[in-house]
Amino acid sequence: MLDEQRQRRLKRITQSIIGLPTLPTVITQLMTLIDSPKTSGRQVAQVISTDQALTAKILKLANSSFYGFPREISTVQHAVVILGFETVKSLGLSVSVLQRFSGPSDNTQFDRQGFWEHSIACGVSARLLAGKLRYRLPGEAFAAGILHDVGKLILSQYFPAEFAQVIERMRTDDIYIGKAEELVLGLTHSEVGSWLAEKWNLPGKLVDAIAYHHTPGRLTRNAELPALIHLADFLCRREGIGDGGGQRMPTLDPAALRIFGIREEPKAALRRIFTYGEELRREMEKADAFTRLARGEAEEESSPPAEKGGEPGETPQPDEDPDPAPLVAHALPYPPLPRSHSSRVQP
Ligand SMILES: [Fe+2]
Ligand SMILES: [Fe+2]
Q1: 90-138 pLDDT per residue, tens
Q2: For 330, which DSSP code?
Q3: Which pLDDT tens digit goes with each residue over 280-313?
Q4: How many Cα atoms are found within 13 Å in the side-chain-facing hemisphere of 303?
Q5: How many angstroms does the Cα of residue 304 sit away from the middle of ligand 1?
Q6: What is the whole-number distance in angstroms between the Cα of residue 337 and the centre of ligand 2?
Q7: For residues 183 and 186, what is the distance between their CA atoms, to the nearest angstrom?
Q8: What separation in Å is there between the alpha carbon of 131 and the centre of ligand 2?
Q9: Residue 147 Cα, ligand 2 centroid: separation in angstroms?
């Protein structure tokens, strides 16, 4: 593609992103609050209470079979304690992003349902791998996984004709979707997604995770989250959950392995990561309540309370593991994350 054409297209896309509505204030406030170590559950609850729809969803999720708590959780503050800050943030973010893209799509080629299944699977997969690879913020990993491919939504919604060409090219040439985007558009969903994340003032780590989820080695520092999403994307694509963009896997960036101190040969390392596939499927079943709520679908009645713990002070996460210690406790074969590694990563 000619440079001039590329520039024009870039500009059009950028402008359309600038014209998009911003995230609700409640979400930006939540993200700031939750990122501060001094924030209390009460402050978070106060912010959530200013948004009725979010309040309802948070309460519904806290009372769903996903958590199986024995007593009804009737206040937002209690729900925040039960769910944990990271989950509240992830839920708020996912719901807001879903709402921003809930209109009908003109692009019949784009499987939006498959797209969301892939996104949520990548969130769950990132959270799972966070435990295995000792990444300390599983909730953040979950949110980054959910949002990593958001650029595809923009392309499909705002540039349906061009994106249809991308999908066509991907199929006829049997290539990975990012490659087809480069050939047809001269840019990728990673770039476009990161522009949106910037426009929405999402935290820099999330912006980078979206921008570099296929190329974490290009970052010379703070590359853990993009690397985690890179590997999580492989795991959920390998399991065939949802539609990650065609049959072709993206190219593995070996830097993603080095960032986590994995020294073995990339194919062997990937094979080892793929052994978590079954666990991912189990986690996906547990995340079903989250998925349906985030999508705004009707929530079935919660099942009877489960046997497991439910004391308000326990702050469990979307499974029975408190966050994050037990995930680390069953961390598998990889060596612990080196203390300071990200700034040395090179492509
Ligand atoms: Fe992607
Ligand atoms: Fe993906």
Answers
A1: 777 777 776 677 666 666 677 888 888 898 899 999 989 999 999 988 8
A2: T
A3: 998 888 777 667 766 665 434 333 333 333 333 3
A4: 8
A5: 38
A6: 24
A7: 6
A8: 20
A9: 9
